[in-house]
Structures are given as C-alpha cells and as structure tokens.
Design goal:
alpha/beta
Amino acid sequence: MGRILHILDHSLPLHSGYTFRTRAILKSQLGAGWDVRGLTGVRQYQHGMEPAGLEEEAEGLLFYRTPLQVSGPSGVREWREIRALEKRIVEIHRDWPFDLIHAHSPALNGLAAARAAARLGLPLVYEVRAFWEDAAVGNGTGHEGSLKYRFTRALENHVVARADKVAVICEGLRSDLVARGFDAGKIFVSPNGVDMELFGNPPPRDAALAEELGLSGKDVIGYIGSFYHYEGIDDLIAAMAHLRGAAKDAHLLLVGGGPMEKALRAKADASPVAARIHFIGRVPHEAVERYYSLIDVLAYPRKRMRLTELVTPLTPLEAMAQGRLVAASDVGGHRELIEDGVTGALFPADNPAGAAEAIDELFATKAMWPEQKAEARAFVERERNWQRNIMRYDPVYHFLIGRANKG
C-alpha cells in the first residue's frame, strides 16, 4: 500500500466533530492496509491542550506535533504558523518517508502542505471540510464580505488550485467549488460517516438517569452538540412554547456547551415552559450514550446561511445510527441527509412555530417511528458507513502515488 501523512488543525485526545472524522478516517485506512499518521499544527495548543512532546498516541493512532508557540499581528502570525508546519512536514519525511500528503481544512494547513509537497516532490490531496470564512460568520467571529472573509476565500482557492486532488465532505461544497471555475474531475466527495462499531448499537433507556432528571415516562426532544449561533438552539427553545398537539407536554434536553450557552440559558429561563427545558451542559464523551438513550426525537434546528446550506453535519448521522428519530431544519446540509417523512422530518429553518408544528406531527404519528428509524439506519449503513466511505480515497491515493513513482 503506502504511507500517508494527514495534516490537521487539531486531533485526539481533543473531542470535536473534526477529530471524530479524523479518527474514523485514520482507523479505517489502517484497517485497509495503509500506514497512516497525523500531524497537527500549532493550533493544537490553542484548543486547551498542553504540549505533549513531538509525538503523542491517542486511541491507537500516532500524531506528530508542531510544538512552536507563534505570535505577532494578524497576517504575520498566520504566516509563521504556515512556515512552522511546512518545516515540520519536511522534518518528519526525513525520519518517516511518506508517499502522499493529505491535508485537511483550514487552508493554512493546505498552504503549508502544498509548499512542503513541492519541496519533497510528493502528491497532495486537500480536503475541504467547510469554508472557514463561512464558519467564522456562523460562529459570530466574522462578517461576510469583510477583508478577512475575502482573503480567506482567496487562500482557499489558491490551495485548491495547487492540490493534485480535492476531497469535500458533501455535494454542496463540491458544487460551490465547481461554480468558482475548478475542474469537476479534480474534486471528489468523501461524505461524513459513522463508525458503526461505535454508534451502531442503540443503548437501552437509562431508567436511573431518567429518574434523576425527572424524565421518567416523559416524551423527550433532545439536542446533543455544540452551542453555536448557527445551530439555532434558540429557535428550538422558542418552539417549545408553540407545541400544541401531540408533543405539547414533551420535555427538551440540551446536552453540550459553547459560546451561546449563557444566552440560551437566559432564553430558557424566560420561557413560559421553562420547567420542561433541561440544560445538562458538557458531559464526558463516554457518557453521551446515556443521554441519547432518553431522547425520542433528536432535533437539529440549524439557521439558514451559507455554512449550513453547503455543509452536512455529522451528529444527525450518529443519531440515525443510534436508532433515534431525527427532526431538522430544511437547510441544504440537512436535505442531503434526511428525506422528509421517510428517514426523519424536516421543518422550516428560522421558524419556531413551523418547527413546533412539524414536531407535533411527528409525535402524532408514533406508529410510523419504527419504520422511519429502520429506514434511517439503513441509509447510514448503506451510504454513510466509514468502512464504505474509506474506499473513496483508495483509488485517488493509488493513482497519485503511482503517477509520482512513474515520474
């Protein structure tokens, strides 16, 4: 097979959707016979981690680190990050000669990898997980059309142009890049997937936890994930007061944390149905399944914006694999995953009353739940199973490595 070095923003032992996708890719590739390792840039230490040396093992995976702290004004700091990561890639190649570089968003990683690939004469795959200028808008840390937004977009275009092949996680991102003028044949989709060994066994209801939270015998709507503005959790909280039908007595369970947590708690406290809204906060990753087990319907009320129209999330897939019913806003990223009335329910984005109406209808048709859950799980097993997804990389790797060897 061959050796692949993955270039990453951050990795295990940190937990995020980004690190879970990375874990699934690396473990699946190891299982398929590739020799793979990861390398994180200096931003690994901006995620709350202390430097752990030049190498670190997590969950059986080996990660190299770039243990340099960089500083300076905006622009200078990012350039120093790129140069440090480029230097580290070249250093690793001397000790562990690899055959291909697979760099993952953001574009800072991609530029460092492109420079190193050129120096080493190696092929480069660049993977776009999201357009980070749009992610900044969604997180409330950027503004569409600003100088930083336009620069980040231009940098992304530059890296895509330099890469030999480009992977994207969904059709929305692929279509956007093609619309920018990039060759469609250069871009392939490797969608978010689920490790069925981790998420494929629905947990039994945790009766003790239900009793502790006052949820015994209650219908439960739940959200498990990060509390960012674009996730629309404020709309879900508002929807609780609009429930009038079969879900009118349902409780809302919110598990996670993030920058919007304080504002969301205040909104929940002011709700006329505050007694039926339960904030759990962050929980250890190994405890998440206990909360999944209490939830009848997982709700994902993302707001409508470029980020959510283009990018598919991971958490609805995990819920579907867990045998949970999913209700989500009708943004483009959700429409790629959920067929309304077949594998779940879609409701109008940015519309609490519309969300409540759809959820009421869902609880009124409980007799259909087993069929919908089975259809959703079958979709994940068939279309979004990491053991299947990994095969999308194989022909690309073989082609690029073979071409490089002939050259």
